[in-house]
Amino acid sequence: MASALVRRARGSAAAAPALWAAARGIASVGSDIVSAAPGVSLQKARSWDEGVATKFSTTPLKDIFHGKKVVIFGLPGAYTGVCSQAHVPSYKNNIDKLKEKGIDSVICVSINDPYVLNGWAEKLQAKDAIEFYGDFDGSFHKNLDLEIDLSAALLGHRSHRWSAFVDNGKIKALNVEKAPSEFKVSGAEVILDQI
Hints:
Elements: H1 2-8, H2 15-24, H3 33-36, E1 41-44, H4 48-53, E2 59-60, H5 61-65, E3 69-75, H6 81-92, H7 95-100, E4 105-110, H8 114-123, E5 131-134, H9 139-143, E6 147-149, E7 157-159, E8 162-167, E9 170-176, H10 188-192
Parallel strand pairs: 3-4, 4-5
Antiparallel strand pairs: 1-2, 1-5, 3-8, 6-7, 8-9
Helix pairs in contact: 1-2
């Protein structure tokens, strides 16, 4: 059914991602991102020593989203092609424009551990602009129905490529790419027009 809705919406580039999200049923415009993933916490990117020092603490979703305007984007994995060459740089290069629109934080989340994300964020020199969070067990993406099996690419279960504007926990805009290798609707340039 979801693919049929997307095929019907192809005439409108803006409508297709919204219809795709609505057809998926869990993460959709108007839903509360915290309620959609009850009890889920994410792991802020950090070094191993920082993890030990914080007793491997996690961050509840309510602490990330409540009372804040957040742009969040998910991607298949650290150190992968489109993620490193296009997705993260689109947000890093537009951070000032996002802040000018009143965004409190820009977050990158991936089904990776926080230590890999920390090294990757440092390599991309993006850690000062973007907050990186690991979804080590994929529970955040599973709850939002944004998980995809990329075993054919030797990646296992990963995140779809997506972006969202979230205001006080409510999803105001959601963009999901049709394929993880595509980068058409989930970049900062698109979300800037939706804020």
